[in-house]
Amino acid sequence: MKYETVIGLEVHAQLLTNSKIFCGCSAKFGNPPNSQTCPVCMGYPGVLPVLNEKVLEYAIKASLATNCHINEESRFARKNYFYPDLPKSYQISQYEAPLAEKGFIEITVNEERKKIEITRIHLEEDAGKLVHTEGYVTSNKSFADFNRTGVPLIEIVSEPDLRSSQEAREYVRKLRTILQYLEVCDGNMEEGSLRCDANISLRPVGSKILGTKTELKNLNSFRFIQKALEYEINRQCMVLEAGEKVIQETRLWDPDQNRTFSMRTKEEAHDYRYFPDPDLVPFSIESEMIHQIKAGLPELPEIKIERFIREYEIPRYDAEILASSRELADYFEACAGFSSHYKMIGNWIMGELIRELRNHNRTVANCPVTPEILMGLLKMIDEGIISGKIAKYVFEEMFKTGKSAEQIVKEKNLIQISDQKELEEIIDKIVAENPKVIEDVLSGKKKAMGFLVGKVMKATSGKANPGIVNQILKKKL
Predict the structure, then answer these.
(1) First to last CA, the chain
(2) How far apart are CA 370 and CA 373, in angstroms?
(3) pTM of the prediction?
(4) How confident is the model over 247-275, as pLDDT tens digits?
(5) Which residues of the chain register pLDDT less than 70?
(6) In this structure, are residues 216 and 251 in contact, taking their beta carbons and an 8 Å threshold?
(7) Distance (Å, rounded) from C-alpha 85 to C-alpha 475?
(8) Structural domains in the chain?
(9) CB-based contacts of 175, cutoff 8 Å, min separation 6
(10) What pairing do the DSSP bridges indicate for beta strands 249-254 and 214-219?
């Protein structure tokens, strides 16, 4: 390519507090419109906002986990703009004195490790939400829901260190995992708990001067982040190749048409006229508070991955998947407490468990197959009571019913046939019925042996012990 892609991201994460950032209203998602408002979050005259201490604690956790420096003094500012879902006509945010600065996280893309610098993390309140009626274009009617107004956010601003849509996607995924491990954000992108804006530009390869950027607003899924950036990279490349100039503007992603479209140009951009909020005094954070919060941080994903590799002797790929969420990592470790077959446990979690969770739209927290139940199934495989093939069927039944493997195997008569005499009788019959296949086996065709094993498994409804079947076949042939 003639051009290098330069991307910086602004990630907005909703903090998992019960109440809003400056008042006691509930921050819960999904309640009836305008049922969670008060004079403070609606900005009535004469009211005074008060900072929620839990918001500050959660923001410090996120800052420490992303290697940021916590500033000695922070202050809130008013970000002034008009929009129908912003009742005060300004948003309380931070500008010149943010909570934290100069952090980083590391990502891995195509097996290459890369450090992404974080410029700042600051606190702010969310705006409300406009709900457009059906036929909005013709009726021009919308309703304002102010439940989200005053919901606590942190904005995590990266340096322009990202060079591809894949890196951007991985950066947001990594941030989301960290925040979920900390239990400060649920990371639910569909509900808007985590969303990002992307600044993207192209420049000639080797150039140190940044190109003209466009901003992509409100990307709320990993797929949209990657697809929107890929589209915008191609669009800007075509503009430059045609000898034209990229216009600095804000654009939105249309998932139905798989394209971005212009929202406003630089000339129409807001002048936010930031100034210190007179209702909220500057605040300092004592070092003792930072030390206490740091001491209480959980084991973070990177450290957990390295420990899994070292302690359980599993491949890095497995460790990264098993540590991709705190719940999944805890599930794996609970299973590992029953058996030292760590690789086998990991395979079942990464395969059968994750597949069934996706198929039934469940999380690990409400999974009907507990670690104890799963390990009961793996014990039956290990003891030769059921085959691996039967075990997969049993697992599906366990997931549907919540019953133990022992119950299901007993109810459905699925115990593996390991009796040598019984299997020899079945094999003798199959050998006699397939003389051509026997010739192929004797001439060295490996697939022919597999055909015979398959016939035996079919004749026993999958209950024959495959190891013993192979031994008998080889002996007879």
Answers:
(1) 61
(2) 5
(3) 0.85
(4) 999 999 998 899 999 887 765 566 789 99
(5) 1, 135-139, 266-270
(6) yes
(7) 79
(8) 3-291 (no CATH), 315-411 (no CATH), 420-476 (1.10.10.410)
(9) 11, 13, 66, 105, 156
(10) parallel
